[in-house]
């Protein structure tokens, strides 16, 4: 507030006071001649300041005297104390009376001048106070509006951050659902590979080989175990990141709630005016609480909250990208391994079917050979039996000729030698046929053994085909797709 003036800017009020006291200005008014004041009879006169001669002066003796001489001639000369007698109580002279009147009028003029100055200064002070108060209120309102706008801006920033954080949490929860779904779907490849291995252990001895299918099944089991371990670690990371995201979102929401409450309070303060019904004296409102923060700390706290939330969100985005890559790579690797195993299994099945077909064809040929050998054996035995008749015939002839011919007639003629040669020839033929029969029987025995082996091998191959084709290949047809393995 400006200082109020102690003097008036003009002398109009002083001139009005002089006119009320009867003092008038006499002169040309051009400023060269001095002012000549005409005074009334009740105001001091120039001769009152000089001693004057007193005519018919009342002395200390006379009918008016009281007999008390308390006033000397000196006092009478100065005119300060007139004679006091029994007829009067007058104690002052006319000069003193006029001087007293002047003092009273001057004091009135002075007080009125002071009152006028006070009135003027009060008006100026009131106007200045009103202007200063309005200016201060306008400045405070402007600052409150700026603060309200700043709070609104930060509140909008927090709202955007909360929205982004909520969206990130929803996306992370979706990724966690995908990961859990992938872990659940991963049980199917594990069970399929485990059952295939368990079924293949039921193969018969000649087929218990460590073939390509066996190696691919072991690789698939190791791959699924490695992927499950990676999924478990990633799930723990996702759970931890979700906790951090929710914590950051809670901090943002708490800060947003505080900003919203402060913004509402600032809006109420901005809307207040001098005619509001809620205006009250609050003596303790001017104090600074101990827990109040500075504006720099307030802004730094909000910025740090937003920055930490953004850093957490970026980590979550990076983890989501990593998780998506992990799921895609896992699905790709599992499908590639499954395709390799299916190709190996198909190749193994084809090879087993080929050898089974070959064995069946060999079995059919062997059965035909066995039939031919049995026919040959029957023919040989029949031929040997028929040779007995020829042998009997030749021996009977020889016996008849050697035992029943008389003396000289029993000679070694050509017929005798022919019969002997016939018997030898029959014996040689029987021996040869017997040898062939023995060989045929041995061959038949070998063929029977080979037939048994072939039939057993065919049974083994059929058992292997039942495991690989009818069971393993069938259950592997239920192998999940890459989309299902990715968690969709």
TrEMBL record:
<dbReference type="InterPro" id="IPR048256">
    <property type="entry name" value="Tektin-like"/>
</dbReference>
<keyword id="KW-0969">Cilium</keyword>
<dbReference type="Pfam" id="PF03148">
    <property type="entry name" value="Tektin"/>
</dbReference>
<comment type="similarity">
    <text>Belongs to the tektin family.</text>
</comment>
<keyword id="KW-0282">Flagellum</keyword>
<keyword id="KW-0966">Cell projection</keyword>
<feature type="compositionally biased region" description="Basic and acidic residues">
    <location>
        <begin position="10"/>
        <end position="22"/>
    </location>
</feature>
<feature type="region of interest" description="Disordered">
    <location>
        <begin position="1"/>
        <end position="64"/>
    </location>
</feature>
<feature type="coiled-coil region">
    <location>
        <begin position="144"/>
        <end position="182"/>
    </location>
</feature>
<keyword id="KW-0963">Cytoplasm</keyword>
<keyword id="KW-0175">Coiled coil</keyword>
<feature type="compositionally biased region" description="Basic and acidic residues">
    <location>
        <begin position="45"/>
        <end position="57"/>
    </location>
</feature>
<protein>
    <recommendedName>
        <fullName>Tektin</fullName>
    </recommendedName>
</protein>
<dbReference type="InterPro" id="IPR000435">
    <property type="entry name" value="Tektins"/>
</dbReference>
